[in-house]
Amino acid sequence: GFNLLANTKIVVYGKDPAQNVNKILPNILYYKIKGKNKFIRFFNLLQNFSKVNNSYIYTRDLIVVLASLIKCKSVIYEIHKKPKYINRIIFRLFKKFFKICAISDGIKKYCLDNLKFNNEHIIILHDAVNFEEYEQIAQEREVLRSDLGMGVDNVYTLYTGTVGYGRDMYRVIELSENFKDVIFYIAGDNGDKFKNVLNIESIPRNVIFLGYIDKNEIIKYQIASDILLNLIDESHPNISFCSQLKLFEYFATGNIIISPSIGSLSEVVNDANCFIYKTYLLKNTSNIIDVFHKCKYLLEKDYPRIPSNIDYAKENTWKKRAEKLLNHY
Fold first, then answer.
1. 0.85 exceeded by the pTM?
2. Which sign does the torsion angle of CA 88, 94, 96, 101 carry?
3. Mind listing the pLDDT tens digit for each residue in 227-237?
4. CB–CB of 246/177 below 8 Å?
5. 239, 232 in Cβ contact below 8 A?
6. H helices present in the chain, as ranges
7. Phi and psi for 186 in degrees, rounded to 5?
8. pLDDT over 90 at 255, yes or no
9. pLDDT in tens, 15-31
């Protein structure tokens, strides 16, 4: 998205090896921040900022914010979750001197109420998607299914992302045991974390773990699958603040999505774009079986892709997100 800045030199500072960054951003000037210690990194940044005339700085690292302020740079900090105690002190001390990009209305309200930020210093920008990556291959859905070994008459369900506590992983077991004719793919785990989180030894045969696969392969599975699962529950520590990248990826496919609408997810998820399920944590029960029955019935009736979700994804690309961000400086 920062290619929007015509005639502007873009500089990236990070802790990753240069060769990794150059693969993704081949035309970007990259400085590797030296030092494992935060103080060493801080002084290393000050030195680099003196060498390069950076007009705008965008970061998720408060060390970068502090270095920017000392060098009188215009800086925006992207906040994803409730900061730790020492970071909250930094926020309160310097809140008048930098701006915030909040990834949800939930985290914006936290910044206003608890960190006492000025409303004019905060912009809300949820996650987004590289829609072009989906658009280019969406028309080849049947070919993808064949290439991925998906049967013509089978129903395939996919979950992508983190497998961990607060992710409502038990719903996969619940669904797979009730719909033995459906294949459930999980991308992002080889099965070890899944077993550990649920404290189980065996997994139903119709649950298949894809492991950690390339991004392009994930896109293929997302497009080729019939139903996309977004699983998370209220025990997740960031449920009130998060913005889920996978939701925007799911929207770009136009496929059926099953998701809860809790916490900050309710800012994006609604009855028009998802089939909403509810989990009752105290009883470890949910209505996801009924929701899945409805989705499966619609598939049997040749339920079409959801054009409005595709349109939503088109309007929420990383490029358009960057435009809004740049206008906020």
1. yes
2. negative
3. 999 999 999 99
4. no
5. yes
6. 18-24, 38-51, 62-70, 85-94, 105-113, 131-138, 141-147, 170-178, 192-198, 215-224, 245-253, 288-300, 307-315, 318-328
7. -125, 115
8. yes
9. 777 777 777 667 677 77
